[in-house]
Amino acid sequence: MEKFKYIKYSLMVAMLVLGGCATKPSALEEQLQQKEALRKQQDAEMQQKLEELTATLDEQSKKLKAVETLLEAKPAVVDRRLLEKQDEAAREMESQKAVQSTISKVPAWFLNTESSPDFIYANATENSADLQLSIDMAMLSGKRQLVQILGEMVSSRMTDFAAQSGSTQDGAVNKEVERVTKSVVADVQMGGYQREKIEVLPNGKTFRAYVRLSYSTADLKRIMTKEIQKNEALNTKIRRTKAFEELEKEIELARDSKTKNRSRQDAE
User: Fold this and answer.
1) How far apart, in whole angstroms, are the C-alpha atoms of residue 16 and residue 4?
2) Do residues 146 and 120 lie in contact, with contact meaning Cβ atoms separated by under 8 Å?
């Protein structure tokens, strides 16, 4: 009985072993499956790398084309900018040469501002392709300077007169002061100035004229006094001021000095 049990048990074990062998693949098949899976994985990785490389090559190709386009256009840009800089430098050099040439030709007296208690001076220069026009323009410019300087002197003196007379708040007096100032300036514009110096120099294809004009302060004071005396309102109030007395003394001293100089010249 025990013998039959053993045989039965052996048969069952054998059947289980055979069943397991039937479902489990052999070692060779397993190796083949592993190789196939590895091959597919390698193919997939290779395909991915190939796609990445292709994308990289496309991007580099675009960059290369852009660089080639830039290199083709750059020489023209560089040449144009270089030419513009060269032209600008040449113009700047010519301008500096012209300035240096002009300065070197300026008369020494023109750069030295002369001062005197007896005269007011004004230096002026103008440039023109016409010789006479350059002189006329320089004279006109000098006269404008004289008028401005003398106008400021008259205005200051008249304001001082009004202040000392206590008439700064008097509208009528202020109006007459302004009128006299304009009248004196207009008289100066009409004449009385002297052309002390003149020099005309070539300036390329044009002429540059240098002039110095002068105006006697004694003449200015006489005109101012005459205008005040003609005006009843100013003559009444201003003539009593100390400032007007000083003005009259200055005129008298200038007249005496002029007489003495003339006598000395006649004696020589």
Assistant:
1) 19
2) yes
- The angle, 0 to 180 degrees and rounded to 10, between the axes of the packed helices 131-164 and 242-267 is 140
Adjacent-strand bridge partners of 127: 208
Tokens of 131: 């010789």
Q: What is the pLDDT of residues 59-70, one digit of tens each?
A: 877 877 776 776
Q: In what order do the strands lie in the sheet with 206-216?
A: 119-128, 206-216, 194-203
| Cα–Cα dist 13/18, whole Å | 9
Q: 121-164: per-residue pLDDT in tens?
A: 999 999 999 999 999 999 999 999 988 888 888 888 888 887 88
The single residue listed with the structure tokens 């010789």 is 131
- Token readout for 1 is 């009985």
Tokens at 248, concatenated? 């009259």
268 three-state secondary structure: coil
| Residue 265 token pair | 């010249």
d(CA 235, CA 70): 87
